[in-house]
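User: Can you recover a sequence for this backbone? Please restate the input before giving your answer.

Assistant: Of course. Working from this structure:
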């Protein structure tokens, strides 16, 4: 083997099937047609709002029994915690806490 071949043995050539850094080499593909559209001509969000008004609202209303119960539990827990926090930081709450510690 010549020195140039030894140095380039890991590099791809026309006779190798395993390429360099993911380039698998191999025979050229024939008969594959690829169509593309310029990103400036695409309308990615066309019909999003009008499509949601009909389809999304129907899906949302169909799922109400599954999310309204957890939402109600979470909101009532939030209200209970908020009222308890406000009571514990009020004058009346401080007096009650002092009386409990005195006994």
């Amino acid at each position: 083997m010549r020195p140039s071949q030894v140095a380039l043995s890991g590099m791809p050539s026309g006779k190798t099937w395993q390429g360099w850094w993911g380039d698998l080499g191999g025979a050229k593909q024939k008969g594959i047609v690829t169509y593309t559209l310029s990103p400036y001509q695409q309308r990615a969000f066309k019909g999003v709002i009008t499509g949601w008004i009909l389809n999304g609202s129907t899906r949302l209303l169909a799922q109400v029994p599954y999310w309204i119960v957890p939402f109600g539990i979470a909101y009532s827990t939030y209200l209970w915690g908020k009222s308890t926090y406000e009571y514990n930081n009020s004058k009346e709450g401080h007096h009650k806490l002092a009386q409990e510690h005195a006994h």
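That completes the design. The chain has four helices and no strands.
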